[in-house]
Design brief:
This protein has 192 residues and is an alpha/beta fold. Helices cover 31% and strands 25% of the residues. It contains five helices and eight strands, in the order E-E-H-E-E-E-H-E-H-E-H-E-H. It has helices at 25-35, 86-93, 110-126, 151-158, 176-191, and strands spanning 3-5, 10-19, 45-48, 53-59, 71-78, 98-104, 136-141, 165-167. Strands 1, 2, 3, 4, 5, 6, 7 and 8 form an eight-stranded mixed beta sheet that branches. It is globular. The model has no long low-confidence stretch (mean pLDDT 88).
Length: 192
């Protein structure tokens, strides 16, 4: 959960991008990093495994204002896409303030999306977290490709609770900031 740094007058919040391997989590993070003012962002850090990587960077948004005189700094993380690295996925969720699930819209990835969503619920449950109380949004990525599921089909499979969801083409930046902004606002709302 969010950490308060009294010395720098900052509230540090953790947002995790979760989803399948090669679904667009890293592309989302790289797009955000490339568009945020270098004065307001930290370094992008990549922790590589044999076949996957976990990315992390932080940034200090200027448009969300302050909370009781504190600035809000967001730390963005991705999890490894492969369930093989579940221990890492689980560890990255520890202390999470908000989650963005990046779903691959391709029809052949439907089962992998469902598996990743179930994995998210299991890992959150292991910490005693409830996804109904954590700021959460879904991005239906890769909307530019052929053989994709309709948004209605994706909602039926992945979003029965009706959390905020967005269409995206992360490689072009479409839907990236809309999704992040929605989760960031929900996180800030929980801090008030």
């Amino acid at each position: 959960m969010s950490m308060i740094n009294y010395a720098s007058r900052e509230i540090n919040c953790k947002i995790v991008y979760y989803g399948t391997g090669l679904g667009g989590k890293t592309t989302n993070l790289e797009h955000v990093h490339s568009r945020v003012d270098p004065e307001s962002r930290g370094k992008m850090i990549s922790l590589a495994t044999e076949t996957d990587r976990t990315l992390f960077f932080d940034f200090l948004p200027v448009d969300l204002g302050s909370i009781r005189g504190f600035k809000t700094r967001f730390h963005l993380y991705t999890v490894p896409g492969q369930v093989y690295y579940n221990a890492s996925r689980k560890l990255i969720l520890k202390g999470v303030d908000g989650i963005i699930f990046v779903a691959d819209s391709q029809a052949q990835r439907a089962e992998a999306n469902i598996e990743a969503m179930h994995n998210l619920f299991e890992n959150l449950e292991s910490y005693g977290y409830d996804l109904e109380t954590i700021p959460f949004a879904i991005q239906y990525n890769k909307r530019d490709l052929d053989n994709i599921l309709s948004v209605e089909e994706l909602r039926e499979q992945l979003n029965p609770a009706g959390v905020p969801d967005f269409e995206g083409v992360a490689i072009e930046g479409k839907g990236v900031f809309e999704t992040l902004r929605a989760v960031s606002k929900l996180v800030v709302k929980t801090l008030n």
